[in-house]
Design goal:
By secondary structure, this protein is an alpha+beta fold. It contains eight helices and six strands, in the order E-E-E-H-E-E-H-H-E-H-H-H-H-H. The chain is elongated. The protein starts with a strand and ends with a helix.
Length: 287
């Protein structure tokens, strides 16, 4: 969701600069920095930004300069003089150095202000054009970043699918080892002659069902395929959908780990979790 767009336009003797900057965020958070005479259009500007940029932490900066390059600002002289008079008196009475007084005065709210007034309709048209161009650049920036993110997501999902194929051979060997271990334990506790073969087979069957991963493997494979299908749609905003699917993938991987009872399968599960964490990190960059 990161992106950047900056454009300049002209209206009469004014140079209008619009800068849009976006960072990752789960919600839409738009912050505006505008000249005073643009405040009346704040709601419309906010709507244009959210319509085009959708989700993310978005900063919109609009600056207006005159033809001589000076910013369109003014100094509130009565307010400045009043603060200066009172601060000078206090610094003398309290013996405080006054070297940085000018800097402090200029930081006081409303001392430096942008002249406010009604915006001309023609000027508003130019502002909208410049804003739309900046938002277009922001979108292009995001698309370029999205190409890289998409490639990485496909790689990680492919790795999980490949790791899932490694579980099968270990699963078959695990059943054999589990059966032999149970048989030895029964023989040690009850003796070979006292072993009820039917009861033993029932116990083996119970643990086989408990350790069976068929459903989890099937669901995990389907979730991975669905993840890829959503990316193939090439829609502008699929981040939330992919995030929900990744949560389901995580549940199936965790269940595989709980049913593993095997160090080799646990190793594969850990690798799957590592790939999934990388997917979740990248999804923070997806709308």
């Amino acid at each position: 969701m990161t992106g950047y767009g900056r454009t300049q336009g002209s209206f009469g003797e004014k140079t209008i600069t619009v800068e849009v900057r976006a960072l990752n965020s789960k919600v839409t958070d738009v912050k505006l920095r505008l000249p005073g005479d643009y405040r009346e259009k704040e709601v419309e500007l906010r709507k244009q930004v959210t319509d085009h940029a959708e989700r993310g932490k978005i900063d919109l900066l609009i600056e207006v300069q005159n033809s001589d390059g000076a910013a369109n600002v003014s100094l509130n002289e009565p307010l400045f003089r009043g603060y200066h008079r009172e601060l000078s008196r206090l610094t003398q009475e309290l013996g405080i150095p006054s070297a940085d007084m000018l800097t402090a005065l200029l930081r006081i709210p409303n001392v430096v202000a942008t002249p406010s007034g009604e915006m001309d309709d023609d000027e508003w048209t130019v502002v909208c054009q410049v804003l739309n161009t900046s938002l277009g650049l922001l979108k292009a920036f995001r698309r370029q970043e999205g190409i890289v993110v998409e490639a990485d997501l496909r790689l990680r999902i492919g790795n999980i699918q490949s790791l899932l194929l490694e579980v099968g051979p270990f699963e078959a060997e695990r059943f054999v080892r589990m059966r032999e271990r149970m048989r030895n334990n029964f023989d040690e506790l009850m003796g070979k002659d006292n072993l009820d073969q039917n009861r033993f087979e029932q116990e083996v069957l119970f643990y086989l069902e408990k350790m069976d991963m068929s459903e989890e493997k099937s669901r995990l494979e389907q979730h991975c395929k669905y993840f890829v299908e959503q990316m193939d749609k090439k829609e502008d905003a699929i981040g939330r959908t992919l995030n929900f699917i990744s949560q389901e993938i995580g549940r199936e991987i965790n269940t595989l780990g709980a049913k593993a009872y095997d160090s080799d399968i646990q190793r594969v599960v850990v690798q799957m979790k590592d790939e999934l964490e990388k997917i979740k990190e990248q999804l923070a960059n997806v709308l």
